[in-house]
Amino acid sequence: MAKRKQEVRSLKTTELRVSSEGDSQTLTGIIPYNAMSHDLGGFREMIAPGAFSDALAPESDVLMLRDHNPGILLGRTKSGTLKLVDGKDGLQFSCAMPKTSQARDLSESIDRGDLDGNSFGFVTLDDSWAADESGNVVRTLKRVDLFEISPCSFPAYPATRVDVRGLAVPAELRSRIAKRSEDDEAEEANDNGCYCGCPECVEDNCDNCSDPECDDPNCTANQRSLREADENRRMRLRLALAD
Q1: What does 85-105 look like in DSSP terms, one character per residue?
Q2: Strand 137-152 vs strand 63-66: parallel, antiparallel, or unpaired?
């Protein structure tokens, strides 16, 4: 049997919160069910209720990391510092934050609204693919092996282009996905490969992008803001370490 492919998805969210009780802090959030993704490269995706049921098993070991960095471990189900609950709207998570400088920095970034992304890594165990009457291809994740949840600085879901190689796409839909992806690239991408729909980016003027929520990795304005945000984060870390 072929080895199953590890996948990562990221999304912007308003559900990340940090609550405090005494000197303890708890990070909470949710991975939503039945929420349609943006175009992932010829298809869209949603998570069916109960898809994360395997993660609730006693022997599971799901990690909570910062930006997918195994060196910044915030909690894990194995130790009980990360707790998962399967709710009707999605997989709810609650992490008792460690008393570390990285955890304090993360809490501050979330409280300020600087960090609004949540990402998760998984291996698909069961999915289904279907096309509607308009030819839109939708993948439904029905059962996945969740191995990681990461609050992240740069959510990538809207800009993600998933490589379908290694995924169990039905043969009759694979060519349709490829064609839709090629059509989208031909019709929507500007000369920089940017898919942002603001007037400036459509006119190949990404330096003056007017979409404040633009997260296209090929948009030069977004690349600049990401570099500035990363430099600000590094500066805060240096100041925290200096203290």
Answers
A1: EE-SSEEEEEEE--SSHHHHH
A2: parallel
In a domain, 133, yes or no: yes
Q: 53 forms bridges with which residues in the sheet?
A: none
Angle at 214 between CA 186 and CA 109, to 5 degrees: 150
**Residue predicted with more confidence, 216 or 123:** 123
Same domain, 201 and 163: no
Domain count, the chain: 2
Is the backbone of residue 50 left (phi > 0), alpha (psi -120 to 50) or beta? left
Rounded to whole angstroms, how far apart are CA atoms 184 and 199? 17
Query: Residue 104 burial (CB < 10 Å; 0-12/13-18/19+)?
Result: middle
Q: Give residue 177's region: left, alpha or beta (phi > 0; psi -120 to 50).
A: alpha
Whether 73 is in a domain gets the answer yes
Largest CA distance in the chain: 60
39 and 153 housed in the same domain: yes
- How many CA atoms within 13 Å lie on the side-chain side of 66? 19
Domain of residue 55 covers: 6-172
Whether 41 contacts 164, CB under 8 Å: yes
Q: How many CB atoms lie within 10 A of CB 55?
A: 22
pLDDT digits (tens, 9 = 90+) for 145-191: 999 999 987 654 444 566 666 677 887 787 777 766 555 544 455 66
- What is the C-alpha to C-alpha distance for residues 38 and 162, in angstroms, rounded to an integer? 11
Question: What's this model's pTM, rounded to 2 decimal places?
Answer: 0.69
